[in-house]
Amino acid sequence: MIQLTPEVRRSRLTDQPMEILQFADGELKAGRQCALVTLVEIDGGAARALGAQMTVSENGEYCGYVSGGCVEATVARDAVIAIAKAEDKLLRLGRGSPYFDIMLPCGGGITMMIHVIRQAERIAELVSGLKRREEMALEFRTATGELAVSESKQVSGWNGETFVTGYMPVLQILLYGRGIEPEAFSELAEAAGIAVINAHEESSVQVDPYTAIVLLQHDIDKDMPVLQRALATNAFYIGCLGSCQTHQQRSQRLAELGFLPLQIRRIHAPIGMWGPTRDARSLAISVLAEILAHYQKL
Prior knowledge:
Layout (H helix, E strand, L loop, with lengths): L8 E4 L4 H13 L4 E10 L9 E5 L3 E4 L7 H14 L3 E6 L14 E8 L3 H12 L4 E6 L4 E5 L6 E3 L2 E6 L4 E5 L3 H12 L3 E4 L12 E5 L4 H11 L6 E4 L3 H13 L4 H4 L2 E2 L11 H16 L3
Parallel strand pairs: 1-4, 11-12, 11-13, 13-14, 14-15
Antiparallel strand pairs: 2-3, 2-6, 3-4, 5-6, 7-8, 7-10, 9-10
């Protein structure tokens, strides 16, 4: 009997874990079976980190990346077949793979775990936790084929016969300031899919370790009360517009208010990865690059 190759198509262009999980959650709630594909081994170079994921629906639609885009359709086809057979499987591509016609540009090899989701409630738990901005972890127990979810910060990787995937809340930016610089920054960040909250319009914002606080104001008097509140939070990044001389004045005022040097050093000023910048768009790129560099280290 000839087995036809399943037709597959990308549902959306994203590598964001929350969107990948939401796709699976939506498909499962619509009554369609899904597979969760996780990058569990890297041999040599790879485009994605350990724990990168895709979700694949029984209808051939898929979301996410486990490489740079060169193997995802092949992975999705294998996942559709796995769903039809109701069997989990390991898939090797690149170096050491039986698919000799599929080579990774980096010359390495990657192994994916294709898990046919039988516990839809676990995916819903993950989505719910991430919406609450909790750190989440998903355990796949190879011995039993079961999933377990916990609210904890984990590094993706193997723990014995269990593969753990760690998820952290998406970056959110709390922005202070009015005028061309904040507007250019908001446009750039939102184009990159990053949530920007206008602090002048939102009275209550949950600041957490995945929040960046950005002050693009040209008024040190307006900065001071904002900085006092910001330094009392656990935001991972606080940045202020202004020259070195302006920041010295801010630092002096904060010290007079009782803030310690260690606390004041949390403030990135002059703001941005490079500078000085003389136009709004260059400033926006510089600031967003600095924020993302720190976010990647969390």
